[in-house]
């Protein structure tokens, strides 16, 4: 369930470059009801031409009334709108779900839903519009202003984040279909962002964008080792991905040491852009190679992260939900460094961030940022036989959720889903 806004430090006590971000968080969470009403009005005005709204009785000539929207538009699952999504995927450019042109699809494999019962293995297509990335990028811009309140000196070093893209496809109608993070890493918001001392990464963009997972991982870890003294935080999106990187390092550390010692990149890295990016920072460093060899020569990998990156202050990975199973392994590798979960999002929508990112993984909660979408909550009830039951007439707004009640999240987005 959503967390009530938490108290954050006064903007006067933080660097100037973070003041506006913290003021924004304070403003939109303190005025969540007003912001949510505005967001819903904007969504309905933008999507007034959408066939889907007219199909359910909303007028087509004026911006739909929010009260009429709540009364007439049903709560639906992906399966309910799948025929409309397939029309778009096959090239129908009319305003079906959105008043704006669909720019691409975000893909995901469905987990089982308590509402729909949909099981995993089905690839879902989430419609996106061009300006949705502008909106989602706001969440990324809030992460370091919050984190820097708890961890000093993050602007004095680099982050070793292991980031990867996946393959993309095209629908029969010609729209790109790709995972949400691939869409972001290939966007101007990631590739052309202005310099920010709080967001300097050791991984070159060329390595992040390389589709060959071996070459991408090898290059990113090599660059992370080259910049080891400057690394102040490490991470990946999911805990499982970061553990995979450590095991890759365990398997290939001798090759990496050879490259560092000689200043020559392994011949198996054949991607031209990746080679050129890595060669720009790779220099012969026999002392660093000896240090890495000595650490792996000790046998145990316990605490290997601070042993290789001694200035690391925390490990930034998602360790909630299904990722919680990896916490003991991460604790072993990290030597007890804090495990931080900073944000909450999905292919469908981005939701919010953790305003107490240094808390224990078991205590993680997220504060919804009410500008991202219109959020409603469906109370979950358990019947006498243990079955989960929903009553769509019980939908409540973001500001009306009750502490201790479990909810299914219902979102209405600017993209028309």
Compile the SSE list and pairings.
Layout: H1 16-30, H2 32-46, H3 51-55, H4 66-72, H5 78-89, E1 102-109, E2 123-129, H6 132-150, E3 158-162, E4 169-170, E5 176-179, H7 180-185, H8 188-191, H9 205-208, H10 213-226, E6 231-238, H11 239-262, H12 272-279, H13 286-297, H14 304-308, E7 315-318, H15 327-334, E8 339-340, E9 343-345, E10 350-353, E11 367-368, E12 374-379, E13 381-382, E14 388-389, E15 396-397, E16 407-412
Parallel strand pairs: 1-5, 3-6, 6-7, 7-8
Antiparallel strand pairs: 1-2, 4-5, 9-10, 10-11, 12-15, 12-16, 13-14
Helix pairs in contact: 1-6, 10-11, 11-13, 11-15
Structure, described:
This protein is α/β, with parallel strands linked by helices and 417 residues long. The chain has a domain at 152-166 and 199-363. Helix content is 38%, strand content 16%. The chain contains 15 helices and 16 strands. The protein has helices spanning 16-30, 32-46, 51-55, 66-72, 78-89, 132-150, 180-185, 188-191, 205-208, 213-226, 239-262, 272-279, 286-297, 304-308, 327-334, and strands at 102-109, 123-129, 158-162, 169-170, 176-179, 231-238, 315-318, 339-340, 343-345, 350-353, 367-368, 374-379, 381-382, 388-389, 396-397, 407-412. A hairpin with a 4-residue loop joins strand 9 and strand 10 (350-353). Helix 11 (239-262) packs across helix 13. The longest helix has 24 residues, at 239-262. The radius of gyration is 23 Å and the shape is globular. The chain starts with 15 loop residues before the first helix and ends in a 5-residue tail after the last strand. Mean pLDDT is 91; it is low at 1-7 and 111-120.
